[in-house]
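Q: Could you write out the predicted structure for this multi-component system? I'm mainly interested in how the pieces pack against one another.
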Amino acid sequence: MENPAQKDRQLPKKYNPGEVEDRIYRFWEEGGYFHAVPHGKSSKDPDPDKTPYTIVIPPPNITGELHMGHALDNTLQDILIRWRRMQGYEALWLPGTDHASIATEAKIVEALAKEGIKKEDLGRKGFLERAWAWKERYGSRIISQLKKLGSSCDWERERFTMDEGCSRAVREVFVRLYEKGLIYRGERIINWCTTCHTSISDAEVEFEETDSVFYHLRYPLADGSGYLELATTRPETMLGDTAVAVHPDDERYAAFVGRNVILPIVNKEIPVIADTYVEMDFGTGVVKITPAHDTNDFEVGLRHNLPAVTVIDDRGYMNELAGKYQGMSIMECRKAIVKELEEQGYLIKTEPIRHNVGLCYRCGTVVEPRISLQWFVKMKPLAAPAIEAVKKGETRFVPERFEKVYFHWLENIKDWCISRQLWWGHRIPAWYCSDCGETIVSRKDPDKCPKCGSAKLAQDEDVLDTWFSSALWPFSTLGWPDKTPELEYFYPTSTLVTGYDIIFFWVVRMMFSGLEQMGQVPFRTVFIHGLVRDALGRKMSKSLGNGIDPLEIIKEYGADALRFTLATGNSPGNDMRFTYEKVEAYRNFANKIWNAARFILLNIGDSEVELSLPDVLEIEDKWILSRLNSLAAEVTENLEKFELGIAVQKLYDFIWDNFCDWYIELSKPRLQGEKADSARRVLVYVMTGILKLLHPFMPFITEEIWQSLPHQGETLMKSDWPVYQESLNFPAEEREMERIMEAIRAIRNRRAEMNVPPSRKAPVFIETAFADTFRRGKIFFERLAWASSVEIGAGFDIDGAVSIVTADATIKIPMRELVDKDAERARLNREKENAKKQLDSVLARLNNPSFVEKAPAEVVRSAREEAERLREKLSLLEQSLAGLS
RNA sequence: GGACGUUUAGCUCAGCUGGGAGAGCAUCUGCUUGACGUGCAGAGGGUCAGCGGUUCAAGUCCGUUAACGUCCACCA
């Protein structure tokens, strides 16, 4: 590949992400660097032992635009995949999109409505044509948006939940489960959305606390001996009541059980039954039972063999069994019925009540429980292995606490309603024979009934829940049901990255599907993240209009700044707030690195720079190399623990503080002298190390800089991840540099307190027990502590000097005109008091026998050292005070 | 009703397996130091929600209370 960066080694003063990002992304894509292949199959494989690292993308819906949730999710995935790729894994990030059955269909219906067309006008075939056109248009849009983020997906392997392969997998799974008796069709009470006009699963119902009215009704006893009082929030369903229930232990009503009451208005006799489902102390302790329109009542109905009378139709209107109320909407009917009950004296009273109402998670319509003929997956047998696998640690959650949520859901799971009365989706592969009534479920479309031979077959009209196909994603995308090399090599996948909000929808379903079909968990680790909220902590939503468009942020601040923002300042599983201040801070950080690179390039000029380290290293070289070495270890360690935020923080601190504020400054005087060459080599070496460690987080700017610097190889994204090397560990030099840096900081501090401008340079006299160290660091004082000269010795007697005391040295700076002896004395005394207090506290610990006895030797030793340092400092302070008078 | 999370500097949040509190932003003071003012050098600011316990040692572990938040359940 052509090196895409500027050739002239001159970078502009400000980093301009807009100019860089698209170019770099194209370079990667054209280079084929995102592509991953199975290893170990062929003898010609140059790298047969390469270990796979696999992530399958949570496929974004083709309805959607990239939002902050996607940006977070995909940033985390890209960080992991880029890091593992650099570590030498065969890293596959498999991308794709989801057909999102119900959501997409709703969008298309909405678009059609604007043209004044109903989907029925188009017919199934015509509608599906529109849907595929939609998919072509919006499916590619979201993909291009993912690219803007820098996602290093293997686009050659892009999949779609309704493409041929995935559809084949869906059909195969359906047939297998059916043949095993794990998929069945039956009349059950299900959640019905009267707007989407389809069934939805339990997971798709959202509950919301709602203010409502509790109507107390009077149901007269059939024998005229009195009445029972009961309460309901849904009086219109009384038209479908087939019993009244009380608790079997409720003495108040024991005498009524087995007798009949007359259903008001309908004037029908219905029995009084006893069932433990009734709560004695809620309401009046009497419940009307409407098996056709309430989930619990349905269960009661089954236990007591009650008939179910459906009075509401699939559009939310009263049907013919509702008598004169037929044709009214639920709310209209409620009003009318309450009026009539009141007129006839059946309404005792009303009271306000706050209770939960189930809403459709797509459109927010109140969900109607409804009896209907649907397809279900029998969950108990599938849930058990999924629970077991996590208990055995075959899959683990990060953070671990989400395992509890996972277990709770699976342990209480009910059968999964998978049929949807929609057109966009995988059509259920079931046919019904209109002659003998046989149901045929098969891998191939049947042309005649296997039982009676009739050709009058009709395919089930429904499609599958969109999550049915998503559940197969980790293996359907790798070629299953065929035994492809990809499937063998990349499955089970390594890490699944997703938000806690779709654990139920997706994670559990992938788990049991993977275990059932593949016999192995679909992924080793589930890395859960939280939600991105707005600056006020509110969920970003369309209706609130508080959403922040990631693409706008990328345009203004750059993808790297956005990624850094999302990767930092938050711990796994927790929500985070998005603020412009944060992105701005990381935009500044990117610019900081950019300018560090500029500095290096400026100093390289035309000279050739060796990529290896020089043979002779200075103290500051060893210090920064040693720090970089530990940084590599720390970043790696935290990535392994999925503590991306901590890894980011360490990188940030090292780059800004150690490298830019110290090492680069320290290198400046050297770059003017004989040791310039070795300085350049160390600068390039450290910068390269930084770029590597930072690359997973900020891929664009790091690649751009890397290409500009002297380098080896084609692309940073394929370079080796830095590993800790014992040969680069220099603890002694680190300590020495610390002494020097402490002294420099102390001088700066004093000068700032006295408001001495940098332009006012002054000689510095250092008295220290570490003369060698300070001699090596002499030049740094001139540069970083504005010293006009540096002398290291003992017993300097300077009249009117400022004394600065560290644990290792006393520094004297003659600034007679600025020194007020009394103030100086007071300050030194303050410092003395301070040091004394600290010393006392350390001594208190050391004088405690149980501390010395029980604390680890390491801790005791460092306490002793601390005490020693403080004693030293105290004595130096004493001397300075004595010298003052 | 059950489970979980959060509570640390003015604001937003880190602080991993207990060893003596950090960052960014904001505030204040200096700075035309030849990479960067999207910058440099400094400063101020915290009884780590309350209470109790374990420990030589607690922001960190245990218990408890409170406030806020989330999920599950669904008492009609």
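A: Regarding packing and overall arrangement: The first strand of chain A starts at residue 52 and ends at 56.
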